[in-house]
């Protein structure tokens, strides 16, 4: 049975986390909506039944089909926390492992995969003028319409986590992810899951036109790539092409 989003249930669960809820039928981007909010005190979560302009890093599109997934952003006061993207990825991984025994694989920097296809994208944005941060998360829970995938050239990339006959509660998933993220904010280190169980490790990458092997994610969240000549520490996803 699929428990769809319910405003009353979500509001009650999020209130326990001192988090306010905004629930909308559709929007261009939950991240962009939260950027418009000023002078807030509590954490705010916007959940959309459908995003028309969901995006990941480098402006890449993320499939946001109504009913097939969950799409939400969190607005948090104080942007001085470290390793937000890495923490969010670990929290998503932990929720699906703990509640549903689904072993999603984190891919450096901000994606999660299941059965070798992308099922989750994370986009964190600092709002410097307001000393706040926005964490946007989109998760493909169920099979996406083939026409939607084809129209977005994502047939070979986008996947899903559950079959339609599995018991899934969208309200619980959102609230448990937010709970873990809020609990992790004050930690000053990256979880070992992110460093040691990352999908990119052992994979071939291209850097400066040369082939390397991704060998390590260090405790700063940077990727170490090596070949028979040298090792390079990569800070930005933009610097390499990942052959996955």
Would you mind describing this structure in some detail?
- With 244 residues, this protein is an alpha+beta fold.
- It has two domains: 189 residues, BirA Bifunctional Protein, domain 2; 43 residues, SH3 type barrels, CATH 2.30.30.
- The strands form three sheets. Strands 2-3-4-8-7-6-5 form a seven-stranded mixed beta sheet.
- Strand 11 and strand 12 form a beta hairpin.
- Helix 1 packs parallel to helix 5 and helix 3 crosses helix 5.
- The chain is globular.
Give a quick rundown of the structure.
The protein is an alpha+beta fold and 244 residues long.
Q: Helix and strand layout, with pairings?
A:
Layout lengths: L1 E2 L3 H9 L3 E9 L2 H6 L7 E9 L17 E9 L6 H17 L4 E3 L3 E4 L2 E11 L4 E9 L5 H6 L16 E2 H15 L7 H5 L7 E4 L2 E8 L5 E4 L4 E4 L6 E2 L2
Parallel strand pairs: 1-9, 2-3
Antiparallel strand pairs: 3-4, 4-8, 5-6, 6-7, 7-8, 10-11, 10-14, 11-12, 12-13
Helix pairs in contact: 1-5, 3-5
What is the fold-level CATH name, i.e. the topology of the largest domain? BirA Bifunctional Protein, domain 2
Write the CATH homologous superfamily of the largest domain.
Bira Bifunctional Protein, Domain 2
Give the end-to-end Cα distance, rounded to a whole number of Å. Answer: 33 Å
> Which architecture of the largest domain per CATH?
2-Layer Sandwich
Mean pLDDT across residues? 90
Helix content: 10-25%
| Total beta strands | 14
How does the overall form come out from the CA principal axes? globular
User: What structural class results from the helix and strand content?
Assistant: alpha+beta
The sequence of SSEs as H and E is EHEHEEHEEEEHEHHEEEEE
Helical segment count? 6
């Amino acid at each position: 049975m699929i428990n769809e989003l319910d405003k009353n249930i979500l509001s009650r669960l999020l209130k326990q986390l001192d988090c306010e809820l905004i629930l909308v039928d559709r929007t261009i981007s939950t991240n962009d909506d939260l950027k418009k909010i000023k002078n807030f005190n509590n954490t705010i979560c916007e959940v959309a039944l459908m995003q028309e302009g969901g995006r990941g890093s480098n402006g890449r599109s993320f499939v946001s089909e109504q009913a097939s997934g969950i799409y939400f952003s969190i607005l948090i006061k104080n942007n001085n926390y470290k390793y937000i993207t890495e923490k969010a990825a670990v929290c998503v991984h932990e929720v699906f492992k703990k509640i549903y025994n689904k072993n999603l694989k984190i891919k450096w920097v901000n994606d999660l995969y299941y059965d070798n296809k992308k099922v989750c994208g994370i986009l964190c944005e600092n709002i410097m003028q307001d000393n706040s941060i926005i964490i946007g998360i989109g998760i493909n829970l169920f099979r996406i319409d083939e026409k939607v995938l084809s129209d977005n050239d994502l047939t070979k990339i986008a996947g899903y986590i559950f079959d339609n006959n599995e018991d899934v509660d969208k309200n619980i998933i959102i609230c448990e992810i937010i709970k873990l993220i809020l609990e992790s904010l004050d930690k000053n280190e990256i979880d070992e899951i992110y460093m040691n169980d990352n999908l990119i490790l052992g994979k071939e990458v291209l850097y400066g036109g040369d082939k390397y092997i991704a060998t390590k994610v260090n405790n700063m969240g940077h990727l170490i790539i090596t070949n028979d000549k040298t090792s390079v520490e990569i800070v930005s996803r933009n610097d390499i092409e990942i052959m996955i």
